[in-house]
Specification:
single chain; alpha/beta; Aspartate Aminotransferase, domain 1; seven-stranded mixed β-sheet; 15 helices; globular
């Protein structure tokens, strides 16, 4: 049986058109984009064109794009780079608001900053994985400097109301500025510092609008390998005027915001991947949803004592997260892998951990139950025929492991 891949939230295969766009910059056009000779200028031109293409798809200025090694670096630059710049400017105890379900690339920098004197509020989401906007607004204080909310959660696929949050933050910033402007020039205090808004849009790019003006974001992170592009390249959109302190030193690349020789093939591939994702978003969403809905229908019908964690009404069309009660998620993963089928138990970045998913815990799931979780994340090339092949083996796997499991009745009501 041909191997089947249901783990697109971890990474995606490089699209053939993306690979074709990249290949010349590994061999013929191999120059360093910072070099002044013709080899370097050919590479620099490719970077410039990629930057323009990305800016068009994000509705921003080309100069607002910073190339990075991926979304983890982009997230770190957004959080740590902003806060460190504000601290250098005199803000003693910056306050950050984020979600308890964020990727570790947000959570861990926030925890590091807490140790350095920052205040951080981690807001839990509702059972469906979505945060109530009012809960964020209620946490805002005079020293709130940054609000970071992921666009789409990688485990359950829940979509956060980024535009609604962005508009609310913009309204607060506008009011502070208007109030300041009402005072005469001699009576004015220091110009009010805005609250900056960041979103990790890594998991959203295939499915949702990334128009930065529409979303009202100041910072936005992306990674190439989640959108059928190459690994090792990403970007951070940083709205003009947003303060950032470089975290990576040793050169003057990216307007002194991120040192390092640019990954020219990767940059070209990233731009092509986002272009394709944007152009074919609706078409791909419709195709993926058909397969995902069929997967859910069959699993829920054919495997008893199973719960669908993903709320499909507030999630991407690609995610289907299940709890197979009484069966460790890792056991299901390994058993399927031995049959050539790839799934996940959660974020790939935390897959080596035996701890319960912090995402599921933040959604209110008991730790014991969280260990039974399995994530299916579908891509544009998956088919219902692959689901049929999955269902020839999955019910038997679950049944086999449950025979070795303790009594399952404690997980269910007697109704």
């Amino acid at each position: 049986m041909k191997n089947i891949y249901f783990d697109h939230s971890a990474t995606t295969p490089v699209d053939k058109q993306v690979l074709a766009a990249m290949l010349p910059y590994f061999t013929k056009n191999f120059g360093n984009a910072s070099s002044l000779h013709s080899f370097g200028q050919t590479a620099a031109q490719a970077v410039d064109l990629a930057r323009v293409s990305l800016a068009q798809n994000l509705n921003c200025a080309p100069g607002e794009i910073i190339f990075t090694s991926g979304a983890t670096e982009s997230d770190n630059l957004a959080v740590r780079g902003l806060i460190k710049k504000l601290q250098a400017g005199g803000l003693a105890n910056p306050h950050i608001i984020t979600l308890g379900i964020e990727h570790e690339a947000i959570i861990e920098p926030c925890k590091e900053l807490e140790k350095a004197g920052c205040e951080v509020d981690y807001i839990n989401v509702e059972k469906n994985g979505v945060v109530e906007v009012q809960k964020i607004m209620e946490k805002i204080k005079d020293n709130t400097a940054l609000i970071s909310v992921m666009y789409v959660n990688s485990e359950v696929g829940s979509i956060q109301p980024i535009r609604e949050i962005g508009k609310a933050i913009a309204a607060i910033n506008d009011k502070k500025l208007r109030d300041w402007e009402k005072h005469g020039a001699n009576d004015r205090a220091q110009k009010p510092r805005p609250i900056y808004f960041h979103t990790d849009a890594t998991q959203a790019a295939n499915f949702l609008n990334l128009d930065t003006k529409h979303l009202h974001v100041d910072l936005l992170s992306l990674s190439g390998h989640k959108i059928y592009g190459p690994k090792g390249v990403g970007l951070l959109f940083a709205k003009a005027g947003t303060p950032l302190k470089a975290l990576q030193l040793g050169g003057h690349h990216e307007k002194n915001r991120r040192s390092g020789t640019l990954n020219v093939p990767g940059v070209v591939g990233l731009a092509k991947a986002l272009q394709l994702a944007t152009e074919h978003r609706d078409e791909n969403n419709a195709k993926i949803k058909i397969v995902r809905d069929y997967l859910i229908e069959r699993i829920m019908k054919e495997i008893p004592q199973t719960e669908l964690t993903t709320d499909v009404n507030v999630a991407t069309p690609a995610h289907a997260h299940f709890t197979f009660f009484g069966v460790e998620g890792e056991a299901t993963l390994v058993a399927l892998d031995l049959r050539g089928i790839a799934v996940s138990t959660g974020s790939a970045c935390a897959s080596g951990s035996l701890e319960a998913s912090h995402v599921l815990l933040a959604m209110g799931m008991p730790a014991e139950t969280a260990h039974f979780a399995v994530r299916f994340s579908l891509g544009k090339n998956n088919t219902t025929a692959e689901v049929d092949k999955l269902m020839k083996v999955l019910p038997g796997i679950i049944k086999k492991f449950r025979k070795m499991a303790p009594d399952l009745t404690k997980y269910f009501s007697k109704d």
